[in-house]
Amino acid sequence: MEIIICPVADHVGQIAADKVAKIAAEVGPGVVLGVATGSSPLSTYDGLAKLIAEGKLDLSQASAFALDEYVGLADGHPESYHEVIRRTVTKPLGLDPSRVHVPDGSLGGLASTGERFEQAIAAAGGVDVQILGIGANGHIGFNEPTSSLVSRTRVKTLTDRTRQDNARFFDSLDEVPRHAVTQGLGTIMAARHVVLVATGEAKADAIAHVVEGPVTAMCPGSVLQMHQFATVVIDEAAALGLRLADYYKRVYDSLPAWQKLELS
Ligand code: F6R
Known about the structure:
Elements: E1 2-6, H1 12-27, E2 32-35, H2 42-53, E3 63-66, E4 68-70, H3 81-90, E5 100-101, H4 110-123, E6 129-132, E7 154-157, H5 160-166, E8 179-182, H6 185-189, E9 193-198, H7 204-212, E10 230-235, H8 245-253
Parallel strand pairs: 1-10, 2-3, 2-6, 3-5, 6-9, 9-10
Antiparallel strand pairs: 4-8, 7-8
Bound molecules: fructose -6-phosphate.
Fructose -6-phosphate is lined by residues 36-40, 67-68, 133-135, 139-142.
């Protein structure tokens, strides 16, 4: 795992964006992005938008696959991930909407939604770089604790903790859906690179488990220890639980200049 601890919290998004842009440049114009919702990746999307505005990145021919979608929200609901991805990813990054895919969370489509989404990812040639946040309970996507480490896209029941954490996006806890369609841990692991972003002390325990804990379904994000190209970009607060934080800093500081991500 590559662990980048940013001394300045505000730099997390730009460092993560630089990492994603570097991978996108290696892949070429048809890069396939995996995109998360929630608060954590917003600064990464801002960073990518900045690179695009500066003419350093062009995602107009890229495709994108969202990690997840709530089950049963009305079409056009502002907190449905179809809408969130449109607002925070498709528009600001200038993606072609016909190449942006979000799982179908409609009640009528649930029986086949996972299979259809997996087929769409396969048809696009797989995800080149998956951007991830992490839940305080260690979930990635909506793979809650005890999710199969080899799971594929399917419907999951949200934990009370996740519903409470996400209630801030809704008028009341009652309105937070109880189920979601999510890429599985096996689906996420099939991405060629993953870039996980986290900031703030509330994520420190989860990050400690992901990076240094045992690989266990009780902390789904810990499966990333088995990924060949996983990068974790965090601030000092999210790094508070890491026993080897000084070592990770030293490793990063001693990288040759060409391997380092510099703030642009
Ligand atoms: C979002 C997702 C979730 C979030 C996680 C953290 O598509 O799948 O795993 O990344 O819940 O959310 P924030 O960033 O809002 O703390």
